[in-house]
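Mods, move this if it's the wrong board.
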Amino acid sequence: MKNTLTLIFCLVAALAKAQQVDVWLTNADKSALFQKQNVALSFGNEKTDEPTIFVDDTKRFQRMDGFGFTLTGGSATLINQLKDSEKAELLKELFATDQQNIGISYLRISIGASDLSDHVFTYNDLAKGETDPNIKKFSLAEEQKDLIPVLKQILKINPNIKILGSPWTPPTWMKTNGESKGGSLKPEFYQAYALYLVKYILGMQKEEIRIDAITIQNEPLHPGNNPSLLMLPSEQGAFIKKSLGPAFKTAGIKTKIILYDHNADRPDYPISILNDPETRKYVDGSAFHLYGGSIEALKDVHEAHPDKNLYFTEQWIGAPGNFAGDLKWHVKNLIIGGSRNWCKTVLEWNLAADPKQNPHNDGGCTECLGAITIGNSIVRNPAYYIVAHASKFARPGSVRIASNITMSLANVAFKTPSGKTVLIVLNESDKPQAFTISTKGKTLSQSLDGGSVATYIW
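Not the wrong board. Structure tokens:
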């Protein structure tokens, strides 16, 4: 009898614990900034007439790799210039996975300089007229200054973080115009560029930094940035099929190859490459930004090639920022929209900038607001809170599960590897909205102010 009562008590206690709900809230007026709510919530049997979000963990979709940012060269420089104690404290806040920190789980970095590096460089820069088809002069020396030291500190905090590399330009001697801005990759240097990327992955590996994936080219249809490269779909497909895919295979490299890395208005770009069976065998999936098109267009790529993954890899916020507007748009379109449209990652753009949105190179973005501003103090900007609402709770390996959109309540739900359910809800309207969350026949009544975001965990 005693054993039976003990078992019943344990079952009741476990059930009660499973029904307890934590809430983290960000309000559009900043009255709460990713703040855990000090309220005791639990699911019950209450029946209401409120709009209801039904969460169904029996219907499962893509497995998430993570949420995060681009650690630009400029971001790494600013972070690395901090005092050791300040740097350690900041990196712990950003990347540690305990209760006090936001647990960024995925990073994008540039292969060579991006426009938010303090100068333009590649790992094989030569004098005008010189070439190096065997890539004998390859060097990661520029990254030894800031990026590699910062990445090593991050990996000590979170050894499992995944890293995506994206080039903004090949070495200029490989290009039709011989410049960092614009031009195309010369076909006669396809093999050399593939070897360059192999040496990059192996070089980072020697630094004990594993590159999980690369995209072929950042924004291949935007040759007006500095640095940049025009790479049409036929060119990207030929480069992968003839050079990069075979080079990775020969070198035994498992790093994923990801297509496109540009706006959602051209789903035909990755689809056309994936339609070629000889190319697609080397490709893991496609990456997107949202400076053009609709996030729903990503479904077209998934439906055309459902065995290939999707990634959301970049979106910037313009300085000085509009907290309420940025919070609503980015949570709706990226955190919720990207995830609901099959993306395994959702990444905001630059992790850090100074109060004047520096550093950047000549021709680089002058208005890109970092997730944090590093000046006399550390300021947390909209992207910090946007990503935190997902990164802290929907850990790598979480699976998106079914939930319905009702009224103005955009939302997305996940089941975590530890068995918890995570529901992110945005009230898109300007007025408070009462609603009910329903799961497994139990209900929870809630209300969100206009423009507010809440993450529910149970």
